[in-house]
Design a protein that fits this description.
2 domains, eight-stranded mixed β-sheet, three-stranded antiparallel β-sheet, 11 strands, globular
Amino acid sequence: MSNADVGDGDEVVLDAPGFIRVYKSGRVERFLPVDFAPPSTDAATGVSSKDVAILRDACVSARIYLPAAPSSGSYSGKLPVLVFFHGGGFCLGSASDAAVHAHANRLAAAAGAIVVSVEYRLAPEHPVPALYGDAWAALQWVAEHAAGRGQEPWLTAHADLGRVHVGGESAGANIAHHAAMRAGSEELGHGVKLSSLVLIHPYFLGGESSETDEMGVALLRELVRLWPVVCPGTSGCDGDPLINPMAEGAPNLSTLGCRRVLVCVGGKDPMRGRGRLYCEKLKGSGWRGEVEDWEADGQGHGFHLSCAMSAEAEAQVRVIAEFLSYG
């Protein structure tokens, strides 16, 4: 077929080989299929999971995880809640992917927490910032259970809604950040407040990069190309506070709506510098909370999913669990 035979709708606006191809018509081809794992009782951890609807009309749902009860058969008290968002560049991934599912099982077991892993809508079919609205809806859905209006029995019976945390990995960490910022200016309702924010390998772009690794440089270049496709009308990675919360003119981090923050980075993650800068900016913003950072030496972006049983991945889970235990 010659170029003259290709209609405008078949024009490719983004081609990330092996990941995603987006056409001018709006058609999307994804090349990383979800390795679906059904909800279950996990043999390794004893954590039980099930899928629940949050916004039926918008197809927003969650997979909820309940840690195994002690040998006595009952919990000694109410359990904290972690509302969590998976990664995937805003356009890939799922809460039901096997690697994401396994990680949520490990987090729930290690932290002794109910994990609400949100299945938000994906860009570019639902451009950023639509998924930020999905995240806020998920938090409000959890908060409703404090007033006895919620319909999810695991939350009604077992959740301590005085200890609600929000977190995510990669693009999900970006989403979690924006949810926590919104919680600083809006009420979740029913007296529920966010206790803490957990950012795992946060997906922030913009500014000068000191990255020298060839593969890291190539990845950053592709992510910069991807951003205007998933967020049409953006001013670019340097100046857009949605992807660069440290940008000049971005909302002041002092308004972050939680008391504590944990930022985890990989020592070989090309976005590690942005995560470190986020910590520095937060500490200098006038925010009155506590910020902690943790680095996995020599590890790349998302290593806890690709090398889930490594010593570093297990250490990262322990760090997060310990952080949440003090929330």
